Amino acid sequence: MHRVARRQAALQDVVTSRLLDDDYPLIGMIDKDAVIEQVQALQTAFAGDHEAFHMVAAKAVTLLPVLQLLADLGLGCEVASPGELAMALRAGFSPSDIVYDSPAKTTAELVEVFRRGVNLNVDNAQELRRVDELVASTGIASSIGLRINPQRGSGSIEAMSTASSTSKFGFPLMDDGGRETIVQHYLDRPWMTQIHVHSGSQGLTLEQMAQGVSDVSTLAEEIDRRAGHQQITRIDIGGGLPVNFDGDDIRPTYADYRKVLESQVPGLFDGRRTILTEFGRSLMAKTGTMVTRVEYAKTSGGRPIAVTHAGAQVATRTVLAPHDWPVRATVHEPNGHQRVEDPVVQDLAGPCCFAGDVIARERLLPRAYPGDLVALHETGAYYMSSHYSYNALPRPAIYFYRVDDAGTVNWEAVRRRQSVEDLMSESGAEFLRQAQPQNI
Ligand SMILES: *Cc1c(COP(=O)(O)O)cnc(C)c1O
To answer: How far apart (Å, rounded) are the C-alpha atoms in residues 130 and 357?
Structure first.
């Protein structure tokens, strides 16, 4: 059964299985087989005589059972905070399959990276000095590299472009003396055998991404030449493959990216260096759907507005920057059947108490009625797991689903919905003058 048919089966099962009701008017659902298919697509696209190792960017999906599935499928994990590192370890990634990438690592974080033997991409010269001290005191326990900013300019989303000339990330390659400084850092440290680039996330063309990879590949050649031997054995090309948020097809594919890399970065696949990747959005986005109930359908100023339970708390970027992060929505009858008739220009609003909390504005969609379901597609990465605690709205429950050949839908819990008590404890409950729960 195809991903789209599986999703339709799940949408029809959601209400009868009582996963979505008055108490739970918003859930996230992840197609387990779609995750497996995407991982296979990635592994197949990068296969060859060279070594390639793929890591998932944890921030795209901070959900332990999902990370565990990805670990089981043979992926590694890219992390950028103590929390993400702890999650990766708990989910079962071995330290040598994890890379630590934050731009603001404290000394304590670096000590932990060394103690565990996690791989490391160093962001700047001051961090490198701390790393030098740790190497001197502890020795090398993992692969260490520098994150290079190729400074090739931004993509179409400024906030997501890490390779602009003034980006906060990495060692600037094009600044005066930047290149020589980087080469010298490597020549002074024969133990530094990795090199890293990640030009941004969404909004970049394949050619822009490949340009960054080409820049660090050329840099690696120069370091090797001047070192007199092959020093760089691992090239970490980051993530950032854009996702099309306008339909069920997948454009571009990992295979498309491989082709562009082959033509723009000759030598990348020649087997001399292990290729590492750190994809997040492109692995997960198409595997996930958020489903919410239409609570009310009202009209204001002539505009039909469907008030749902999915707003800025789960779709923060979409609500605050709708042009950069449009989300595709479909409207379904209360039994899950997709509505196709009576299209009207309407808003899909969320539950948050600010006027801009609208997920889709002036969207031509079949008229929605109270009790209907709204499905928000391509939300498997960065949406359901990147919660924004506005209005004390709880993190929604998330499920894996699988559909067998007979069409039976099997659900598996990934995360339970936050309880009111959970919300209390993240809001200072233990510091109340007198802990005196009144009515709850
Ligand atoms: C966010 C991030 C990624 C993943 O980006 P996607 O667009 O989700 O593929 C990879 N590497 C680094 C360093 C990141 O910050």
So the answer is: 44
Cα–ligand 1 centroid distance for 199 (angstroms): 9
Give tens-digit pLDDT for 17-29: 999 988 899 999 9
Angle between helical axes of 32-45 and 3-16 (0-180°, round to 10): 160
- How many angstroms from the chain centroid is the CA of residue 115? 27
DSSP percent split of the chain into helix, strand, coil, nearest 5:
35, 25, 45
Per-residue pLDDT tens over the stretch 321-371? 999 999 999 999 999 999 999 999 999 999 999 999 999 999 999 999 999
Say how many Å lie between the CA of residue 290 and the centre of ligand 1: 22
Please name the amino acid found at residue 38. Q
* Spatial contact of 318 and 327, defined as CB atoms under 8 Å apart: yes
Which amino acid is located at 172 in the chain? P
Sheet holding 288-293, edge to edge: 329-332, 373-376, 288-293, 26-31, 397-403, 409-415
Rounded to two decimals, the pTM is 0.96
Cross-strand pairs, 105: none
The conformation of residue 439, written as its DSSP 8-state character, comes to -
- Compute the distance between CA of residue 274 and CA of residue 76 in angstroms, rounded to an integer: 14
Taking the C-alpha atoms of residue 85 and residue 435, their distance in angstroms, rounded to an integer, is 33
- Which of 38, 56, 59 maximizes ligand 1 atoms within 8 Å of its Cβ, making it the mutation to test the pocket? 59
